[in-house]
Amino acid sequence: MRSILSILTLSTTLLFANSGKEIFNQKCSPCHQNYIPQSKLLLNYEFDNSDLNLTAPTLVELSFALKDQVGDRKADKESQLMEIENFLNEYINSPDINKTILPQAVIKHFKTMPSMQGQIDEEEIELLAEYMFDYAEKTIIKHSVQRHTYEEALIKAKATNKIILIEGYIPFCRGCMQMDREVLVEEQVKEALDKDFILVKKNVLIEKLPLELKSLGTPSFYFITNDGKKVIDNIQGTGTVNEFLDLLEGIKSNLKKGIFLK
Ligand code: HEC
């Protein structure tokens, strides 16, 4: 009995030690929190880190910085992952604020990270790199309203009497990333979208818009009636959380008044 138990304990320890998430939770989480909404972070940094008193930037901030700043983000995932692994290896062993990949507005609130030399081996860093690489993107998707294909949206919009909202984007478009990371993910926006809209994302480089709509450039937002037959309005550009919420209200009011674009 005792030996079975010790085998069980051993195998769970091995299992845990094998996941990037566990390593991060054990060795990095004492300083790095996982996720804080962007609106709260911005306020916190504006007030000199006095709101949240963070010890270090969040994992989402690190993850986006790694993905955007290290290696070639347009290359295949494996090559970029190797570059990220190298960066992490170097930074964790000999942190140097001059090599920072974080924005100046963020980094200026923190002391340089203490070196963790000898506390973490290369295999663990490889697992950390994999975990950190996708973390921010996955977190944003988890906190945002559900995304649909246009075909799904047509069925769902009709059944729920909601407006179809198509977000036109292209990969690596700054404004598109800004809207997804800082606006669509905010709780108020998620609630407003959940209540009255069905979200579709279309890569306008390779996907056609319905109703013979031409892409206005990216990011852009196309609002379509729940029967898929009329365009209520469309708009191109980025905005703040409040501007986006106002836009959603305006669209609902246009629909009520029967004002359409085409
Ligand atoms: C004792 C607190 C502490 C621990 C533990 C810690 N960090 Fe940090 N880390 C910081 C602070 C503070 C910063 C911001 C200052 C800086 O960049 O040096 C930071 C920054 C970073 C950065 C961004 C570096 C840059 O400026 O571009 C990365 C990447 C990072 N940490 C990864 C990790 C990983 C991975 C672990 C776990 C293996 C970890 N950290 C553990 C405090 C910590």
Number of helices: 11
Return residue spans where pLDDT drops below 50 for at least 5 consecutive residues: none
Q: Main β-sheet: number of strands, strand sense, barrel status?
A: 5 strands, mixed
In angstroms, what is the radius of gyration? Answer: 22 Å
How much helical structure, as a percent, in the residues? Answer: 40-55%
Strand content: 5-15%
Ligands in the structure?
heme C
Secondary-structure-derived class:
alpha/beta
Strand order across the largest sheet: 1-3-2-4-5
Number of domains: 2
Give an overview in words.
This protein has two domains: 2-143, no CATH class; 147-257, 3-Layer(aba) Sandwich (Glutaredoxin), CATH 3.40.30.10. The protein has a five-stranded mixed β-sheet. The protein has eleven helices and five strands; from the N terminus they run αααααααβαβααβββα. Helix 5 packs across helix 7 (122-143). It has helices at residues 2-17, 20-27, 38-46, 59-69, 77-93, 104-107, 122-143, 150-160, 174-183, 187-196, 241-257; strands at residues 147-148, 163-169, 197-203, 220-224, 231-236. Strand 4 (220-224) and strand 5 (231-236) form a beta hairpin. The longest helix is centred in the middle third of the chain and has 22 residues, at 122-143. It has 262 residues and is of the alpha/beta class. The mean pLDDT is 93. The radius of gyration is 22 Å and the shape is elongated. 52% of the residues lie in helices and 10% in strands. The relative contact order is 0.10. Bound molecules: heme C. Heme C (HEC) is lined by residues 27-28, 30-32, 55-57, 62, 88, 91-92, 95, 97, 100-102, 107, 110-114, 116, 120, 128. Heme C binds next to helix 5.
